[in-house]
Write a structure and sequence with these properties.
Layout (H helix, E strand, L loop, with lengths): L1 H23 L1 H11 L3 H21 L9 H19 L4 H10 L1 H25 L2
Helix pairs in contact: 1-6, 3-4, 5-6
Length: 130
């Protein structure tokens, strides 16, 4: 449970901050996403970062139980899959980024989703995790 709480605190705060950033600075983040896919090195390092985060979470917290801690395990597996996908198929990133450029509501939905996930993980990490 200590590992769950520790990861929930880190991930929860990160998701809260990123969600707020996406929500209040949509134009800036659209520019970041546009610039991201134009640089192959940045795409590779983004995939590598997701891969490492996914592996670390899976190695320390591969817990499949019927409570809130399974969210952390799922985040770890999704990060691993995302990292593999970006490294193996880097050309597909620009297609996803174009979808964000054309449809601002996608970024709004992602912002709200990140805020909700961040709030839930922060709650369990700091207030109800033990």
């Amino acid at each position: 449970m200590e590992t769950s709480v520790f990861i929930a605190r880190i991930a929860g705060l990160c998701y809260l901050i990123m969600g707020a950033g996406f929500l209040f600075n949509r134009k800036a983040f659209q520019q970041v996403m546009e610039d991201f896919c134009k640089n192959a090195a940045v795409v590779f390092y983004g995939g590598l970062l997701a891969l490492v985060i996914g592996i670390v979470i899976i190695l320390t917290h591969n817990v499949w139980v019927a409570n809130w801690t399974v969210m952390i395990t799922i985040i770890g597996w999704l990060a691993l899959i995302k990292g593999i996908w970006i490294i193996v198929f880097p050309g597909t990133i620009s297609k996803f980024m174009q979808a964000y450029q054309k449809n601002e509501s996608l970024l709004l939905v992602q912002s709200i989703g990140a805020l909700i996930l961040g709030a839930v993980l922060t709650f369990f990490g700091f207030f109800a995790g033990y």
